[in-house]
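Page header: ASSEMBLY MODEL / three components / 669 residues total.
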Amino acid sequence: MHSKAFALFLKDFRSELRTRYAVNSLAMFILVAISVILFSIGQEKIPQSLTGGLFWVVIFFSAMSGLARAFVSEEERGTTLTLQLIASPSTIFTGKLLFNLILVFLMNIVIAVLYSALFDEFVIRSFYLFVLTFVLSNFGLAISSTIIAAIISKAGSKGTLYPVLSFPILLPLILTSVQLTSNCMVGTSFAESKVDLAVIVCYDVIMLTASYMLFDFIWKD
Amino acid sequence: MSNYQLCGEAVSKNFGRRLIFQNLNFRFTGSGVYGISGPNGAGKSTLIKIIAGVNSPSAGKIIHKIGDKVIIPEKLHNLIGFISPYLVLYEEFSAWENLEFFARIRNIKFDKEKAASLLGDFLLYDRKDDQVRTYSSGMKQRMKFIFALMHSPELLLLDEPTSNLDDEGKNTVYKMIERVSSERIVIIASNERTDIALCTETIMLAKF
Amino acid sequence: MIWKTFLFLLLCFVSIAGISFPIVENPVHWYQYPMIKGLEENAKIIFFHVPTAWLTVVAFFMSTVYSIQYLRKKNLDDDAKSYTAAQLGIIFCILATVTGAIWAKFAWGSYWSWDPRQTSIFALLLIYGAWFALRSSIESEEKRASLSSVYSIIAFLTVPFFIFIMPRIMLGLHPGAESIEDGKVVQSASPVVDFKMNGNMLLIFFLSLIAFTILYFWMWRVGYKSLIYRDKILKQSSRG
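Prediction written out in full:
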């Protein structure tokens, strides 16, 4: 099953290399979001805790611009039926999740690097805690955005609906990540943040299980 | 002669509260050509999609068996060859790449000789490295047959198989159906008289 | 009919009793409410605010239950039930938000202060909003039913997180709210009112809760039945 999902991922990856739908819009969105923040700040000094929050704002909006492609592109090209005929639903979900995971990690690493280069106030004191938060949150972000992408690919008005549907689902994840990021910036130890980390792990596990259970209902007409 | 069995038990389908068909019972075994016919909107495509496991019936069930073993839905897709006007292949890839990806995603070995001979049969070998988006609609239709036959399915489901095809293409398709149906089940959903003439038995769908 | 009359009388009594019974320092008569420090006359809004918030949650829960039921049985009646519950849910959600904001203005000094419960009800409002936006974008009845069922189940799964996360991140103002800071439980420094109701207040409070709950179920029955009948009539007329 893993090799099948991986083959599907490779297909998407090759297709993305040829069309560059998701990557182009993602890159531009990251640029736009960060520069909007930079312009609005101007010469002001902003409090440190605010930069941590803004970091996740950039991530959320960038994610909303590109992650829906995984399923929407299949639906737009009309290849959903083909996909249904060559793979089982769980394979398809795994393949698409893999694709979105890579995209999320790529996107967020770029954002993190750009962000720490451009914002002097964004200083991470507990580096390993931040890495852990970053990895766990990216998993959660990829999982939720994949299942919501599957839902909206089957609905009309695809573009506008995606952030609307995703925001309430991602809110617990984002709130906890913001909290953890501000912990990292203050320099809190692992032990003090372990409850918040556990919350994110729970979120990832619950959303992953629910997604696999519910994907069948979305996928079959 | 395969020991494939396909049974429909009291199959019904509604779209919302609109009834498409109800209480269909059928049983196909071994080999042969069977037909599904009926006026537009009677649910031919829907029934064939339900048989393929792509749609689910509102009531009743479809059972696929090899011998006495019931095939679970997760495994069904590799045993079915399916052609439909709604089928679209990946247009940014060439015919050859499409077939290669499909074999990998199905987790079966990509048989290059078979791919080449099928492309030859359907007169597409010269264009195999061109992107599918450059094909004409007849070529795309022929390409779908290669897609459906590549993994040697046990059951072949054809929804309007001869649409968009010229006489030469139709003859190729009829020859292929004849060859496949000698050992496997082929189901055709169509209103073309020449298609239905091939069938030994036909399910007639009425319009509700 | 008896139920409707009973409901009407109950709601009348609750409204009159809730609004017009006087608040005094030392209640002697059965109809007098005690004075609560920091709330005074504002206290009366509890008879209407809490039931709406309660019904928001009930409606959300019922909507999810019928969504699960729909995915199991694929019966469009369940979808109608889920839809009606959500419709009432969003009405009560707005009412709870508005009554809460008004009360907050007088009790805590501002309409909105991101107290955990305020944030949670805001999240519920977002979920309801997204759910209706999703439904309105899908033409086919079956697709609409199954996609919105899936979404409501996923949304329901986020609720425990809100209950758990909110008190960790923000200070609580509602009675009974505690904030956990650095692993210790501390009462927040903000004006949390020590809300204790006496007997007659409790009685009116629970009567109001019961009356609103009955009202909800009655509206819900009328709502989903009319939806089902409408569908049937539409189906008949479309067939000619």
